[in-house]
Design brief:
Blueprint (H helix, E strand, L loop, with lengths): L2 H31 L22 H9 L2 H32 L5 H10 L5 H14 L6 H5 L6 H12 L3 H9 L4 H12 L1 H16 L3 H6 L8 H6 L9 H28 L9
Amino acid sequence: MNSRTVQLLLLYGALLGIASLLLAPFAWLLSTALKAESADLFAFPPQWIPDPIVWSNFAKAWDILPFIRYLYNTFYIAIATVLINVFLSSMTGFALARMHFRGRQFILYAVLATTMVPFQVLLIPLFIVTLKLGLVDSYAGVILPVAVNAFGIFLLRQAFSTIPKDLEDAARIDGCSDWHIFSRIMIPLVKPALATLAAFTFVSQWNDFIWPLIVLKNRDLYTLQLGLASLQGVFGVNWRYISAASIIALVPTVLFFLFTQRFFTKGMTAGAVKG
């Protein structure tokens, strides 16, 4: 066994160990969701494989909460936020990367400076503005205040900056306007960055709890995270049903990531120019 083989085995062993640590909480969550009694959760040593396995916990968790309504609300809010964020961040990133105008660098630095302000500090001002606009207890009140962020603008600005200027110059010689250059040339070349931003935005909005909790009062508008929190009763908590409901809520984020993952590599060679 040569040294390279040993290095590969050590590398794979380290990666497997890290993956096991990262997946352990999800394995325990699934184990909790399949147990028959709440007392089994506190058994020592921990019982990783339930005996018996109770699949009906998922059906009971589904019946306890209006999952269809909560799924619709969460999907609507998450997808709308993704579309708005990707569209506006791409336009802003394109302007900051490819257009030349006075104050461009100042605007970029001002946008980046907002990342140093914790979201918790903005909760009260955002709520006051949302209240004044009459958007409390509505989808728009959840979506618009967090629809665009500095991370998306900076990510796409950097992606647009890596595109060779020769492509833009050639398009201008052919008579393309700024909008055609943006929509037909630049956007296809930054698909990996767009997919990354979409995935981050979807997961962030899907798991958001604080802002929807503040804005939404009508239970018919609740997201899945608010619905899961409502499962914790005053006099007791059924961790089996909460775990089962959490797994159900986790599935869409995994599916969305798997859907967008193919764009990460699909656009890598989209800008290749044949000699």
